[in-house]
Amino acid sequence: MRPIDAELLSGSALYREVVLRKLAHARESVWMATANVKAMYVERSKGAFVPLLEVLDGLAARGVALRLLHAELPSRPFRAAFDARSRLVKGGLELKVCPRVHFKAVVVDGAWVYLGSANLTGAGLGAKGDDVRNFEMGFVTEDFDTIDRTTALFDAVWSGAECRGCRLRAVCPDPILPSGVGQAKKRGRDAVRLGKSRRLSRPREESP
Predict the structure, then answer these.
(1) Please, what is the Cα angle at 192 between 191 and 196, to 5 degrees?
(2) Using 50, 70 and 90 to split pLDDT, how confident is the model at 192?
């Protein structure tokens, strides 16, 4: 076991550190992994709360590369807010879905990472009050090896590398790696073909 320098956080401290202090001030990139995606609000100024997507839209306008890896179809309010922001729709926020994603992570500028239990939801990493938010825990660190291993897993799922041997491919709503690519002859770095941003088709009837 290798000791690392990390800080263990819980409750609203996760929201303040992960979202307000780090994610909102990213300069180069933000990679987010979550099982559930719901509309969540964050504090922009004292007493004023805005959707997280508004914060992400501002980051995209500054050229920050944004990736969101998720397991389920985002909630209806999240999709409505996303559709209203053309910059994000046109690629400012890249999204891919993998039903097997259950790890929760936020990697900022490739130099800082959050790992824990909280999803990208109001009751998880959002600005919900302490008396209604989920009981969550997680840690943050700048440890290089931890960041490297987290980004390696994220990139393996994002690129479709894990699609080759996945036994759930038959029931996957939107496989990242096209059928047959896993059997194609390897050509160095080109062996894994990066997929485009995924957007699941939306059923006509669904629960909110």
Answers:
(1) 145
(2) very low
